[in-house]
Amino acid sequence: MDITRRQLLKYSAAIAAASAIGLELPLPDKVDAAHVEKWVKTVCRYCGAGCGVYAGVDKGRVVAVKGDKDNWNKGFLCIKGYYLPPILYSADRAKYPMLNKGGKFVRISWKEAMDLMTEKFADSIKKHGVHSVAFYGSGQAYSEESYFMNKLFKGGLGTNNIDGNPRLCMASAAVGYVSTFGKDEPMGAYDDIYHSECFFIIGSNMAECHPVIFRIINERKQKDKNVKIIMADPRKTLSARIADMHMSFIPGTDLAILNAMAHVIVKENLYSKEYVNHHLVFKTVKGDKPAKVSFEEYVKFLDEYTPEMAEKVSKCPKDDIIKAARWFAQSRATMSFWTMGLNQRTRGVWANNLVHNLHLLTGQINRPGATSFSLTGQPNACGGVRDTGLLSHLLPYGRLVANEGHREEMEKFWGISKGKIHPKPGPTAVDIFRSFNKGDIKALWVACTNPGQSLPNLAPYRKGMEAKDTFLVVSDTYHPTRTTELADLVLPAALWAEKDGTYGQSERRYQYLEKAVQPPAEARPDLDVMLEFAHKLFSKLDRTDEVKKLFNFKTSEDVWNEMRLASKNTAYDFMGMTRARMKKAHGIQWPCPTEDHPGTVRRYTAKYGDVLVKKFDPAASDVSFYGAKADGNRAAIWLRPYKGPVEPADAEYPFVLTTGRQIEHWHTGTMTLKVPELKRSAPNAYVEINPRDAQNLGIKSRDKVKLTSRRGSIILEAKVMDVPRDGLVFVPMHYPDKLINQLTIDAYDAMSKQPEFKICAVKIEKA
């Protein structure tokens, strides 16, 4: 049975509703639940929402899924979650270690693979030092795996040459939270949706990228007609269909709009004097150093950002800016959501700061329904990378590589010599591959991600990955992918439901994923491979005694228990999350310092249950931003001026290209394109073009067009539709046969080092 995209979108809504009440659906290849031998509690493999899932197992295979009605998602799943089982049984599953011999991959044994891999890494370390090797991880790996590799590289080897793909999607959000509140991660929860009366959604197509969260917002609006939804996006996406206001603007000009909203709030006296006087500091940058300023100086800074000025820069009507500011400030409770549209920018941190500014300025924070909430793209970018400290500048649970005290804490905790952790942050994602291209990094291990498709300005990095004088190892569940095809060695990895471990999602909810079935053939869990790698590598480096002390783990639970101890007495404290408790719970939100603690729904407010307020700030009566100790436990409002993108449209390249997701697919499509129903619904890449632009270019839907940037060209089918604003074109990122990232730019945010995937200049012509 073929399914059109229109039908699939209808099915998606039906699936969400039916899965919540246990109904069977008349969908193709639906497995009768009566044939399920057991249901295993787990979590969806896709986005950072973290929907609870039960995997149905029959005869050693996952044959069905259903939503977990006791989890936050209340049994609802999106279409991708419903079709999880087929990703396990694709014909191109990687089943055996494969060695690239002159462009042809040949099967070898695990012993041969691990001997070769550790020999290459050991030789490089002996000849060129520890900074000649690197690891590039993922927000899809389990937390235990990422923590282990962080400890191996930073604590064991003494190099910070370790980063992950969340650098490409969430780094600006993380730096935004840290610079504003002192610590990373949202302070609110999905529960806030049920209490909010105004939703400000900017840079996020939630209907397609986070559909279950979007369903709750839609349900909230249907039940309460007083609820307002503001959608700020250069595209009029599916999400905008339920908006009371769609703020369309030229891509990259939203900083002017956000400052103009603050301008209106201040001029109309809509700000919270309680927060301004008691909970905030105001900061700017003078030279290259942060400096405190007064509220009056902040008000003066905003004078420039009138709605008229913002309209001139952005083409967003000034009346919409004024109305949005009033709705935001005057609502009983306002909640903001954003994701890659703000983060994947050269001013991504500033954009995050400016959203936080609006909440702090109006007091729309630290109570039910009032919070600023960054959505996450991957299922474990938060818990597995940001929290464990896998990024090159971080150490576990809010600690920084550059902070001497934090280094000493972890050196003592890991039982390594003082000074072992290198004081300088390592290269970030793009720079790891730049160093690999130049040959400064000789041996690189990529795990659970697909940089041969996902990096910006892709062509030079792909060329570097296939160079003959370096050694590239890729651990993946599929082969070939656009990265494994470039590898020297491919290691077959167990996938979701084939191993156990932990995910941590957007609302600080940690969840245990139970193993349901065995991986195919010789595929292995990544943690098993990492343990073997560490022991063999240290043996080749004549450090056998060290490795026994550093990596005396047998199971993922052993690693988890060390992680709990590493979090103790920090702002992340989850000592109370024992593995036994996690197996029974439907997720627990940190901080959770004791085994009888229920988890924390809202941080930084004693009134709503954050027990760490009194621990870190005993004098506080309620609100305390205790992560910002240096600022007297006050959050920071930053004076961030408007600056545009690195590469705006111009006469030669008159259009802006932006990339993103479709509801059917996820990231580089290595999983969802294996699902026949999803692939039939959305089989090919395309370029969205505004009807006015298409008419001017003489282009019709289904015409073949050539899209060209300063870095490359691609031929795509045109879709003429009133979704992108004039001057903007959109291409989905999922398709391995159409590498759209050959066109995107690898310029990145100076603070977060996150690339500007969302904006680059292109020209269009008929192919």
Word description of this protein:
- The chain has 767 residues and is α/β, with parallel strands linked by helices.
- It has 4 domains: 5-89, ADC-like domains (N-terminal domain of TfIIb, Single Sheet); 98-168 and 380-543, 3-Layer(aba) Sandwich (Rossmann fold); 171-374, 3-Layer(aba) Sandwich (Dimethylsulfoxide Reductase, domain 2); 655-766, Barwin-like endoglucanases, CATH 2.40.40.20.
- Helices cover 33% and strands 18% of the residues.
- The strands form 7 sheets. A 7-stranded mixed β-sheet has the order 5-4-19-18-17-6-7, with helices on both faces. It has a 6-stranded mixed β-barrel with strand order 24-28-25-27-26-29.
- Strand 26 and strand 27 form a beta hairpin.
- The radius of gyration is 25 Å and the shape is globular.
Quick gist of this model?
This protein has 767 residues and is α/β, with parallel strands linked by helices. It contains 27 helices and 29 strands.
Q: What is the annotated CATH architecture of the largest domain?
A: 3-Layer(aba) Sandwich
Please report the first level of CATH classification, the CATH class of the largest domain: Alpha Beta
Question: What oligomerization state is this entry in?
Answer: single chain
Which strand order does the major sheet show? 5-4-19-18-17-6-7
Please give the largest β-sheet. 7 strands, mixed
Low-confidence stretches: 14-31
